[in-house]
Amino acid sequence: MKIVVMCGIGLGTSAILKVNTERALERLDIDARVQATDVAGVRTAAADAQVILTSSELVDAIGKTNADVIVINNYFDVDELVAKLEVALGS
Amino acid sequence: MPLPHLPLDAITIGANADDWPAAITAAGDALVRSGAATSAYTERMIAVIREFGAYIVIAPGLALAHARPGADVLTDGLCVVTLADPVAFGHPHNDPVSVIVGLAVTGADDHLQFVAELANVFNDPTVIPALAGATTAEFVQSVFGQS
Description:
The structure holds 2 protein chains of 2 kinds. Chain A is an alpha/beta fold. Chain A has helices spanning 13-28, 42-45, 59-62, 78-89; strands spanning 2-7, 33-38, 51-54, 68-71. Chain A is built from 4 helices and 4 strands, in the order E-H-E-H-E-H-E-H. In chain A, helix 1 (13-28) crosses helix 4. The longest helix of chain A is centred in the first third of the chain and has 16 residues, at 13-28. Chain A starts with a strand and ends with a helix. By secondary structure, chain B is of the alpha/beta class. Chain B has helices at 20-33, 39-52, 112-122, 127-132, 137-143, and strands at residues 11-15, 62-66, 77-87, 97-104.
């Protein structure tokens, strides 16, 4: 399984989201690859992804995708990530 | 890789900022003071928000000011600015912002480790309010495990 985390420039914020998404997946005991990307690269990165995690500000920049788009409000709240991933991945 | 050093001159307590560009500029000034970046980097941090919006407000009350690596980044650097009065960045959930963490990185690949350290600090939900209420730069250093 592949999860894409997206921010405007593909580092900093997305790196924090990547780290905490991996912590949430560990807690859920789900094996998935988490890739950080920027707005410009999201189309390519998300082509084979199940889920895209990003900020509400950037949802419109994703465009058409088959992946589930999940908005994360607090990038440091692993509980929020666990709850939203649990719903999206149906585990 | 641990967090970059957070020297006292990279910390501003109670900065006065009327709007978000002024708040980002205060963070840029702190990175310039500590020798991590030149003022051109400040302009690029502002440009990121103008282009993509307030997504850098990644938690209630906290903005992570940053831009891509570039010639205006002199060394990996971290700064912390607290605002005298919180400022709206335009984020639907996390406004207003009272703490700005500024990040300057020389390379995209090698910054993951210290971003993980940053996550370790901020995964504690008491940290943002504690920083917002900080009255000394030494206290801010201690929150980041530095002295």
